[in-house]
Every structure is written in structure tokens, then in C-alpha cells.
Amino acid sequence: KVLLGNFIGLTGTLDASAGARWARGANQLVGLAQGQLFWLDNDRYRNLYGGTVQWLHNLSPTQQLTVFGQFSALRYPQPSQAPQDANRGIGGVAYSQAFAGRYSPVAYVSGYGGDERSTDAAFKYLGYTPFGVRLGGQASLAPQAVLFGSAAYERRDYNGENPTFLLTRQDNQYDFRVGLAYTFLPQWTLTPQVAYTKND
Hints:
Elements: E1 2-8, E2 11-24, E3 27-40, E4 43-60, E5 63-75, E6 86-98, E7 106-118, E8 128-142, E9 145-162, E10 167-185, E11 188-190, E12 193-199
Antiparallel strand pairs: 1-2, 2-3, 3-4, 4-5, 5-6, 6-7, 7-8, 8-9, 9-10, 10-11, 10-12
């Protein structure tokens, strides 16, 4: 899968992913390799390479448990940004539940934690330990229209004192998203959505 988008004005992204799935009984194992190139001011700003592994277990026909792990290598081609080069690892667990009745609603919750560490020990204060939780769900308004929404919180505790401000940074980030996936032709879906992010 290759996605081209956001080439409007001064930023751009190119994403690619490839994966495989193995299933037996109530279990599935999914592996995915991912890559992303990001441009800022029409110059290459950041490269991201990594992968995700997930184990999915169906507890019942309407309940699913997922355990996942992710690894990403973030690399900044510009020499002035090289101190931001980092390796990021995340692990977590998720639970999803389908409900009977009108609109066939589905809800999920997940929690995760990990570590993002600078590749240069002199800049360890740029790395951090993230912890987060996500809640979301979807409802089928019609055979061709699915309403979805999510809310997420992430806390990031940084790994050292910033030498400029003589403080250790801490972030609290809140994300909200709502949208509609509308299948207007076979194999064609239009997905308008609104997202809001606040980072303190």
C-alpha cells in the first residue's frame, strides 16, 4: 500500500507498508513493515522505518483481545536535526467488543507504554517515556455508511533536563477524532473526518 497525500503548500508525506497475516482457530498473527518520508518547506525533514507485530485472540464471536508491539527508527537527514535521531519502541494491549442491535456498534479500548531514546547519549533529554490510553468505536448508520470516533490521551516524561530551560519536560496530549466512512461505489470509500489535538 502506498499513500500520497498532503502535498499542499510546504509539507508532504509518502507512506508505504507491507505485511502478512497468519490465522489458526481463534488466533491471528499479523506482521507489518512500514516506512514514511516527511517533507517540511519542500526539503526532506524526517525518515521513519519500522514495523508492527500483533497477536489477536477471539475470546468469543463478539470479543477480541489484541497484544501488540511496534518499533520505529526516526532519522533526520539534515545535519542540524541529527540530534533528534531516535529509536522508539511501544507495547500495549487492546480489547474490542461488538454489540447486537441497531447500528451494530463496536467499541474498543487500548493502553500502551514504551520508550523513545536518542541515538546520541549527549541528547538524551530529547527522548521520553510515553504512556497512553485510547477509546473509540463505530456504528453502521446504513450498509454504506459507518460513523466512527475516538479519544486518546498520552503522557510523555522526558529523559533528562533540557539545558536551555533547565527543566525536565513533560507533555500531556489529548486527541479527538470523528468521521464518516461512506462507500459510494464498490471498492471506493470517501472518509470526511475532523480531528483535534491539544498538547500541554
